């Protein structure tokens, strides 16, 4: 995720960092609002639980991005944000397949 800078005087927005992908979010796929073939982009059915001081403090859905074979953690949250920053924020997370 890049850093956003806004220049109010000129009304422009500049992003420093990688350009976000134009694929639909898992949330759009789940709600049926996506026009793309979501099954070709994502595999659903994963949960992520993160812990602080040994106690679960965050739990949510995670979707596998199918087109990222070289990515060591190719999962995103419902809003399309990667799950990797959750490890940095909470220190310990568990990713599991829903049954």
Write the layout of secondary structure elements.
Layout: E1 3-7, E2 12-16, H1 26-31, H2 38-41, E3 42-52, E4 55-65, E5 75-76, H3 84-90, E6 92-97
Antiparallel strand pairs: 1-2, 3-4, 3-6, 4-5
Task: Describe this entry's structure for a reader.
With 99 residues, the protein is of the alpha+beta class. The protein is 17% helix and 40% strand. It contains three helices and six strands. The protein has helices at residues 26-31, 38-41, 84-90, and strands at residues 3-7, 12-16, 42-52, 55-65, 75-76, 92-97. The strands form two sheets. A four-stranded antiparallel β-sheet has the order 5-4-3-6. The longest helix has 7 residues, at 84-90. The protein starts with a strand and ends with a strand.
Write a concise keyword list for the protein shown above.
alpha+beta, single chain, 99 residues, disordered N terminus, two-stranded antiparallel ribbon, 6 strands
N-to-C order of helices and strands: EEHHEEEHE
Distance between the termini: 31 Å
- Counting copies of identical and different chains, the oligomeric state is single chain
Mean pLDDT: 82
Spatial shape: elongated
Major beta sheet, strand line-up: 5-4-3-6
Largest sheet: 4 strands, antiparallel
Give me the count of strands. Answer: 6
Structural class: alpha+beta
Q: What is the number of helices? A: 3
- Bin the strand percentage: 35-45%
């Amino acid at each position: 995720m890049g850093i956003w800078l806004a220049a109010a005087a000129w009304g422009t927005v500049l992003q420093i960092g990688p350009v976000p992908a134009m694929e639909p979010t898992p949330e759009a796929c789940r709600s049926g609002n996506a026009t793309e073939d979501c099954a070709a982009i994502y595999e659903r059915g994963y949960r992520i639980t993160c812990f602080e001081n040994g106690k679960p403090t965050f739990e949510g859905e995670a979707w596998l991005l199918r087109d990222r074979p070289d990515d060591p953690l190719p999962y995103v949250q419902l809003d399309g944000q990667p799950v990797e920053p959750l490890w940095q924020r909470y220190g310990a997370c568990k990713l599991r397949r829903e049954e």
